[in-house]
Amino acid sequence: MFDNEKTTLRRHRQERVRNDVRGTDDRPRLCVFRSTKHIYVQVISDQSGKTVVAASSLSKELRDSLPEGGGNLSAAKRVGELVARRCLEQSISKVIFDRNGFLYHGRVKALADAAREAGLQF
Fold first, then answer.
1. 13 located within any domain
2. Judging by beta carbons within 10 Å of its beta carbon (0-12, 13-18, 19+), is residue 114 exposed, middle or buried?
3. What's the pTM?
């Protein structure tokens, strides 16, 4: 499978960041993936190799309340609030932010800001 140039460059940024960013059980990694239609977030403990919390614009709680779809700023904010709420329920208050090679603006920034406002620290 051949990637286009944008995807290849993102994968290089992703590998470069992943060498330094590791999630532990005490401070897991909050990893963001955005597609054209949706946005996905996982809170991962690399130490135990498990996904602790996950949320996306396709989550049951958000799917019906997003009439315009999941590929915009308002959806990213709602997903950020949801993942923060789920983390706090699991007594996770500190995470390491992994933008997964995406630039820190637009939907990725909106998700991070909403998660911070909801109580996550990173």
1. yes
2. buried
3. 0.87
